[in-house]
Amino acid sequence: MIEILKGGLLLVGAIFMFLAALGLVRLPDLLTRMHATTKAATLGASLIMLAVALHFGEVAVVARALGVILFIMMTAPVAAHVIGRAGYFVGSRLWHGTVKDELRPNYDPLTHELKSGMETDANAVHQPRENDPR
Questions:
Q1: Nearest 5 degrees, angle CA 68-CA 73-CA 76?
Q2: Do 72 and 101 have their domain in common?
Q3: Nearest Cα to 112, choosing from 85, 94, 133, 82?
Q4: CB of 104 within 8 A of CB of 126?
Q5: How much is the pTM?
Q6: Same domain membership, residue 104 and residue 84
Q7: pLDDT digits (tens, 9 = 90+) for 76-98
């Protein structure tokens, strides 16, 4: 029974990792690519590490596997946020179908600073930035 569970975890983890790679290739812009790779790769790597913990069944290996899972769950979303924010600040183009850009009215592209008291504008529709070739 444990062999079936390990095999299932490895298979589902590999499928999620494949979906992360597919999202990286197929999605149109940096922000959607970061979303796909962060979510799917985090889940895929976590499932594979659970299979490793089940396979070895030793306390040291299980503790390390759980530590790796915890580390990935804590750092992957933060890293994706930082990379996405840096991409936005350097002028990475958004997908042409992007409907709303809530950061644009509150971001100064000259100083790379956010305006204080960032109120969200419910009607902030995507408008291309100055250096956006669309």
A1: 105
A2: no
A3: 85
A4: yes
A5: 0.75
A6: no
A7: 999 998 998 888 888 788 888 87
